[in-house]
Amino acid sequence: MTREKKLKVTIDSRELEVRPNTTILQAARESDVYIPSLCTLEHLPSYGACRLCIVEVDGLRGYPTSCTTPVEEGMVIRTDTSELRSLRQEILKLLLSEHPASCLFCEEHDECKEFQGTIRKVGVTTGCRYCPNDARCELQEITEKVGLTETSYPVYYRGFPVEKYDPFYDRDYNLCILCGRCVRVCNSVRLNGTLSFKQRGKLTTIGPAFDRTHLEAGCEFCGACVSVCPTGVLSTKVSKWYGKPDSQVATTCVYCPVGCRLELQLKNNEVIDALPDYDSPVDQGLLCVKGRFAIPEYILSPERLGTPSRLTPVGYEVISWDQAIDEAAGRLRGTKPEESLVVVSPQLSNEDLFVAQQFTRQVLGSDSMISSVMVDLGNDLVPFLELAAGGSTFDTIEGARGILTVGFDSTYGYSPVGTRIKKAAQEGALLVTLGACDSNLDMLSETAFQMDHSRWAEFLGVLADYQARGGGKGKLKARKEWTDDIERISRAFSDSSTNILVVGPEAIFSRARREVFEKARVLRDKLGWKIIIAHPYTNLLGMLAMGAFPGVKPGECLREGTSVTLSFPLIDLTKRKKVVYFIGEGRFDMLPDCDYLIYQNGLPPATSRQPDLILPASLFTESSGTTTNGEGRVLKIEKATEPFMDAKSDWWILSRIAEKMNKGKLKYKDVAGVQTVIKRQVKGFYDSRRRIGFARINAEETTKWLKGAPNQEWEGSGAGKNPSYRGIPLARVVAGMKVVDEWVNTSLLSEKEAR
Amino acid sequence: MPEPIRTILEKHSREPDELIPILQDVQKEYGYISAESVKGISKYLRISENTIYGVSSFYAQFRFTEPGRHSVKVCLGTACHVRGGATLLEMLERGLGVHCGETTEDKRFGLERVACLGCCALSPVVQIDKEIFSRMTVNRLTEQLKEYE
Q1: Are B68 and B108 in contact (CB under 8 A)?
Q2: In chain B, which residues have their Cβ closer than 8 Å to the Cβ of A199?
Q3: A471 pLDDT above the threshold of 70
Q4: Domains in chain A, please, with CATH?
Q5: Which of A58, A492, A582, B122 is at 20 to 30 A from B49, Cα to Cα?
Q6: What is the signed CA dihedral for B87, B89, B92, B98, rounded to 10 degrees?
Q7: Which of chain B's residues have a Cβ under 8 Å away from the Cβ of A184?
Q8: ipTM value for the complex
Q9: Residues A32, A2: contact at Cβ < 8 Å?
Q10: C-alpha–C-alpha distance, residues A355 and A394, integer Å
Q11: Cβ proximity of A276 and A419 under 8 Å
């Protein structure tokens, strides 16, 4: 690419060189010239609503808004004349005539902050508390910068009731200045179209059609609108009155394998909010509801386990860590390998998983280590792992010309993938959706096929077959009702240079998944399609790399270019175990009969079988480490706060028990120590420049390895539908997720009935 | 999708520019834009229902409630306003139990306001269906409404 030629312009009598194809506002900001603006925001299209960014340009009539005027060679621009200043003040006054302004203009303004906290025995609020956004409000900032100290217009209060009936965030449209940021982010960045301007003139409001609730209108609750609102209209329910956060920590979300970057907002050593990072290459700031809103309530749940405790005939007894480790070591010592079972969670960090497999193998001398992914996928595990390990990066969607989704919906999860698909479709890529019910992607798809799960594989098969034969030659063997459609879309797909198949949870948890996996493999191997498997097992690739599957050694699957056969030893869940050790897992449907249950997690399980020993574990915001996302990138998890009460990291607890049992190797004192050992055993794992590559997993030979797996609920509320963290459904601790889950379940039900 | 809306949609291409012509045709056919029509249009044009509502609510020509069997239009032009048009409207809103722009539950009356009917000398003026009633009073209006079913 040739370097863009810079343009020479004069801003406030300074001669500057600026990039071409920018607006005056952008150019000024890049040259450190301040122009006030309320409606402009990076990543959003220009709009020109607030009129505060007006400037004078020689040769242009009037006062153009700098956010909508492109820079041109030789422009002479003035941004700060007395004329502009007084105009801006007047514009701001008009804007504030519909915005309660007690926090802006008040005789007590300066003293207010000082006397707000009073020393009294009862909680008394002094000062105004009309708006949760005090001290983080852009309107306050701009008012100060524009130098407005009083207003001559009466304030017209629009008198809308505050909308509190939707989950996650409240809306007080009395504070709205109609800058349109929320509408633009919803429509142009998230491509979701929940918000729009309604009516016009002084009646203008913002919201969905027909006075529907956001839930009804298809809102994803991604919180993008909340993040961009310059005033206090939109506020997170959980943290709205916390005020300005003290600090923020960048980390990675571990709720699903996308691995979005989060800016955790901290106040008083608590995580109160999580914001997106629009510059993150993995997710581009396109968080889903889980990462955006479901973290603080989980971490700060009143149910959190804070102290080690032991079950006695009269209930739980709080014990010290020394006692707890003694107890655990005593129970595990002398247990024969086949009498113990370790259950790990795919949502643990790489380091925790590595120590957990070391613990199982070197301390317990066993290989019986299971996880929810193994139980959910049962004997279809190997083909599933094969596809997941050979998946493509999310940004391949951006260049794809043909996209086929199977059982995929990105309303409440996998937003960075879903939004990229929407964007590609909007820019002209062919999108075809295949599902049993409506998907949020149907809107932009060329054709939305709805049929029962059992026919998906057949559909894919016919498509693959037709494409492999290069179309027209020979007769298409397909159901009559498909013939035209398949021919049409197949032709479109064969014209495309890059095709992508996205396999969603509906397909992964359907009865016909094995055939779907097989057809996906055919599309990939024979026709060069790219595959993305949208599964819920966060650190699945980390489990493979760390060897947290029975019969899989650390690093064994990472030899790119080779092939590997996974042979799982038979694990029999029907046999009674002496000790079962749950590490970061709370799903008790996997629990076989046992004499003694050690439960190490952040929240108590919801079950009648009480654990005999409870070890409180810290969660991902409370300890450092790394996680591997679905693309194979190793992403950093940063410790943001101290652990809750006495909770400890999983690797720490395992190391201490191992030490107690005098089983040499696990003497880890910090997470860096674990990483040093991983570096030695798993070559190139922390090479952050590239994603980890996997050996080709041999999917042809698959053994039956699991006996007595719990019956799976097919086509229903499986792991994919109701998201969980460490085996605890988010809906149990996060009020809003409960509303969302119920909504998903009832709308599915009504759809089924309608059919 | 009901048949008429499908026929309307098929007359137009699937470009977003067609939104307003489609809305106009739907309104002509049904007399209003129903939630169901919006859904149909949304699927056809691949624009979200919310955006369609946003666009159509901008224009005064589109309405979202089913019109009543009889339309009652109260003039609130300057002359009518001065001579009590607002009182008539308020009385109607209370009497019929609907707001301006809405339709009574039994679909008997749809209440609207207009800016001027062009006969200010006869103010205050109320138009019921096609008939103009001049120098209206609350009592006469109440009596008049009884004649419509």
Answers
A1: yes
A2: 57-58
A3: no
A4: 7-80 (3.10.20.740), 109-299 (3.30.70.20), 309-369+578-714 (3.40.50.740)
A5: A492
A6: -130
A7: none
A8: 0.87
A9: no
A10: 30
A11: no
